[in-house]
Amino acid sequence: QNADPQKTAFLLRKAWTLYSVTPLHGFRRARLRDYARLLSASIAAEKQKGLAVEVGVELDIKVALSSLADLRGSELDEAALLVQLSSRSRASSSNSEDKLVWSGWFCSMFGDDLSENVPEHFTCLPLFLTHGAESYTSLVGSWFQKTFDCCFRRLAISPLNLSWMVAMWAGCKLDRAASAVELVFSVPRLSQPLDISYAIHPEDAKALWDTVQKTPGEITQEEVDVFMDCLYAHFHRHFKIHLSAAKLVKVSTAIASAHCDGIVKILHSQYLPGVLMLLTELAISQIQ
Amino acid sequence: MQRRQSSRTPKQPLDVRQKSQTDLSAWRKRGRTDSEKSLQNHQSANDQEHDSQEGSLEQALSYFEKVQDRVALKKSNVLQKHLDAVESTALKQGLPPEGFEILLSVVLSGKFADTVNTRLLKSLIPASVIPENSVVTAVSWLCVSKCSGNIQLLFLKWLITVFDFIDHKEQLHALYGFFFSFLQDEKMCPYICHLLYLLTRRENVKPFRIRRLLELQAKMGMQSHLQALLSLYKLFCPEQVTITLPAKMKTYFKNSEGPWKAAITAVRQRNQGTSPLSQAVFLGTSQPQSRKRKWNVQLVIPASSANTNNLEEDREKNCVYLYSTNESFPVEQLQTFPQLLQNIYRLEFPSQMGSVLTNPLLLHYMNCVKDESIYLRLYYWMGQMLQEECPWCVVDNPYEEEFKSFLEAVFKAECFLQEGFSACEEFLYKTLPLWDGVCCRSELLRLVSWIPLSSSSDIKSHLYDPLAQLFFTSSIYFKCSVLETLKELLQNWLNCNVIQVDSEFSSLNTTLSGLVNVVAELVHFVGWISTVALRLENNSTFLLHFILGFYETVCDMYLKYNLPLLVMPPAGVFYPALLSMDSVNLNQLCYIMYRYRANLVAAKENELSKKKILQFKFSNQTYQEYNQYIIAMVGCLWTSSAFQKDINPQGLCMDDKLLNKTAVKEVKTSFNIVYHPAMMGYSVEFLQQVCPDDTTFNFKLIKGKKWDWYLEYLYTQGLKGLKVFIESSISRVSQASRRKA
């Protein structure tokens, strides 16, 4: 909870693609350096289409695995695991910086539902977030799948969960001037794709939510429904369009934005754990 | 098609003989085809078509074998025809091993124009393997360079692509120096490098070769293919290759798959029956991921490979393991059952548990090792696979066939282990409500039969409700397959219960009463849907057969499976079976009732003897139901009193007045084993045999001694169920009645 904002700052303001991951089997945190070596050799081998590669030599993609010790919720949670791929600069001089080409991290934020039921030798880090080329995601993911016998699946976010997110995040207090709350809907079954963007002033959204929420710190499905219905009714009054018939595809608030395809961007470090907790929950429900 | 047909006319071999009188080998071949032809006459038309295709390939091969001079394609219909034959066979089923030497020789000897050679080369798709000899011959032709440069290049590309299909490689390795000498050819160089890369062993790395490569590199500049070979040399002999190679490596060799790769895969799939699983197993660990799919969800069951994670660790602790015999046995090497037995204590599960599905040896091992983590790994993997690939849950999923064979593999593993996977159970519960009853029908229903027995109360809402909905709205064939599935489910549950009782420890947290309740629920469910289905399908004989099949298991649960439970079929099933129009179902019903009797009698005896305190006893209601049915049956089959004595509220009891209205004479003696619609055929036949002169069909003649004969006659007709029923339930009555008469 008391994560150092400095250490997790690089996770903010980036679009992360979400995956759920089943528990890793036989993963040992003490061996991160070995894993990095093997993963880097495996990436080199894949890129050369199965030609022989020596493990341990300097390769063009450098892999770093590290723990993000602060990024965890409960006692049962494992610390998050960061994977970074950087390409070595061509100039062989040692002072030149390696360029980060891909990063991904595994995390569990209050994932007790999963971790308390799993025997030893299993490591529960059900949420995996990636940023960078899909081809690298595939190489890293395949290696993890083969090495730790786990399964990755894209984590899509249903419209229902998106509406939860917008309700939760619209009600959050922020110090600085916040950006607008925006909902994007897509209208199904049209010959031409039609997207409707619905932006609300953050203070209005918060005011609305405050009237809807009965007990602070607790949210019910009913309240979320009422909140959304109010927004729909308002929109209908002005434009005579029933948004409830369209599909909610994206929500963005000052806290974070989320797309139904499973892409999120977290904007505010204070709410990082909260957002991750919700995403961990979604990932676990996809696994179980 | 017409042309192929004509090639089988008897005239054809004669023509061939005239043309090739001096060619011995052709004569020998023809002799063979002649004898094959005479065999073919007895085969079905289908086979003939297949054989004729092979025949024309054979003709084409013999043509190419003996062709002497250059023939122009445009001018020669014969060449055109044979070329077509080779191409079509190659694409459909691949070429047999013996074809390669002939065709490679033709192509590389430059007898034909390049267009012909190219077409021939492109159709060199192996059905199984490529004999090493043919490749050696081809290389010797290559050395005399009779063919054009383009053909040489195409040949090398072909060789690289099919390298893994060559049956042996020893002689090919002996030709290493020859290949190496081709490096000087600038055009061939990249392909020769690739080939050498595939062939090189440590002993091939020689100082003079390294020098030659370095010279070439100096001449041609940094070429990725040369670098590849050099880096391989360096890997083998680091002390001899002293140059530094750049760490940054691009793709070494251009994709030289050429036109063959897709065709080979297609042929392989067709020959093996379209199973991506068997393909994965065949190709083993070197199977590359298919690029067209998402990386995380290829429905390929991972090939078995040792856990690299731990291997690496072992290497670090090498000093320790050198002295211990405790080394683990890599799963890749596990090929035979004796190996499994020898290494069972040092065998390690593969890095990906999913691979056990297609590996019977590992399934054996899994059976021995009761380790929770094995099942958990399998559970996670299978759960994700099933959900991600399920065609009716994922929109626009074009991989139904793959999913089918995946379900098939899961089912086979379940049969092998004799238990259901919990991932499968959850998947079924989740997706049955969404299922259309068509997609992957038989595969899915088979999985249903392995739903584990548990006392969970959700089986109704998760399984019975969605299944009933589909059942009532689908065809009779679907209904029958559901009934068959539920029969298997019941049998699996009962077997599982027997094993649990025997092994004296119950891993499932089910009490006996819980178990009895779950089984009873299933039997009642089937009774209910059967009753409705018989009405919907107009008492279909076919359907009835499957329903009675289910009750054949139910009626024996006490004696055969030691389960203190007997449930009688509902009246909606019993009466349609009793009044069935065909003898098969009636016979089956008789057998079932006989088994009910045996089970109930045994239960009663146990109860009376009170040898052990019985926790369960059958309710009186079961005995009452049985007795009601027996009265109806005896009335129907024996005493002609069904209409008077049936006391079942849903039974056949009818008012005398109503019966009189039917205007049947002597109602009271007119419905028994002689007159029953299902038996009428037998009684007519019997009468004809006993009284051949009587054409009036006087069924009344069947009484007294003839009645007994009639029974004997029925028994010889295969009505064994009727026999055991009558002998157990009626014989005393019959003797008594006979004595009276």
From TrEMBL, chain A:
| One family name in Pfam for this protein | CENP-L
Q: Which locations, inside or outside the cell, does it occupy?
A: Chromosome, Centromere; Nucleus
Q: What is its main location?
A: nucleus
Keywords for this entry?
Centromere, Chromosome, Nucleus
InterPro entries documented for this protein? CENP-L
Quick one: a GO cellular component term?
Answer: nucleus
Instruction: Give the family this protein belongs to, as stated in its UniProt record.
Output: Belongs to the CENP-L/IML3 family.
Q: What is this protein called?
A: Centromere protein L
Automatic annotation (TrEMBL), chain B:
What protein am I looking at? CENPI protein
Q: Which GO terms describe its cellular component?
A: inner kinetochore; nucleus
Q: Does the keyword rRNA-binding apply?
A: no
- Gene Ontology BP, a term: mitotic sister chromatid segregation
**Location(s) in or outside the cell:** Chromosome, Centromere; Nucleus
Q: Where is this region: Disordered?
A: 1-55
Q: Which domain of life is it from?
A: Eukaryota
Question: Major place of localization?
Answer: nucleus
Keyword Nucleus among record annotations: yes
Q: Which residues cross the membrane?
A: none
Identify its protein family: Belongs to the CENP-I/CTF3 family.
Query: Record's Pfam families?
Result: CENP-I (PF07778)
The gene it comes from is Cenpi
Q: Which InterPro entries match?
A: CENP-I
Keywords from UniProt, A to Z, are: Centromere, Chromosome, Nucleus
